[in-house]
Amino acid sequence: MRRLEGKTAIITGATSGIGMGQAIIMAREGANIVCVGRNEERMNDVVSRILSEGGNAVACIASVEKAEDCKRAAGLAIGTYGKIDCVANTAGIFDGFKPSLEQTEEGWIRMFDVDVKGVFLMCNAVLPDMLSRNDGAIINMASIAGLTGGAGGAAYVAAKHAVVGYTKQLCVDYAERGIRCNCIAAGSVSTPILDKILADDPAENTKVYETIPSKKLGTPEDIARLTVFLASDEAKWMHGAVISHDGGRQALG
To answer: Are the C-beta atoms of 245 and 225 separated by less than 8 Å?
Structure first.
């Protein structure tokens, strides 16, 4: 039996990178997927791919920083599949390693709107259904930048630290009600954003590999496989964890 058979998962940021990998692999493991993203062309591609492989998926064009969009995604999941078993809050933006003095107030607000408020709004959209059944898995995408400095700019590092703290508080508030809230602190993963940064800046390319003991970038599929575990019944006693998935980066301190 597939590990997520019969479960329904909402994946934000499902139209590229890690979110797309999560949507495809979780569908292969039997989950019904609600793909949330803003790019309609890429959305059609990922949903079509899941359907072509015999999986179940529906599209939801939405922006996670809007409460009404998050509620609409939750309503789509319940209306289509009857319940919400899991949400993977993966949608996010990056700040290009900008130090504080180079960041604008608008840029700071935008970072927190997407990377922090978006997680908060989507969690609040799915929690009522999960709490009605005393069961559910929330998987928030942080970063090694949520555990240390140097893995992003001032706004990104601050935002990812906020996601880590929010995940821990979700655990404190809702673990007794059967809601499992965990966080993935992803390292350097080969996504369109990172690939462009490394291509544009040879020095950054060298620096990134120097900070990975395995000397390998992660892939969206690597993160997706951990997401499958966290969404599955195999992780039924895992609450409030912040898991470094980073090729050994955190071993360097």
So the answer is: no
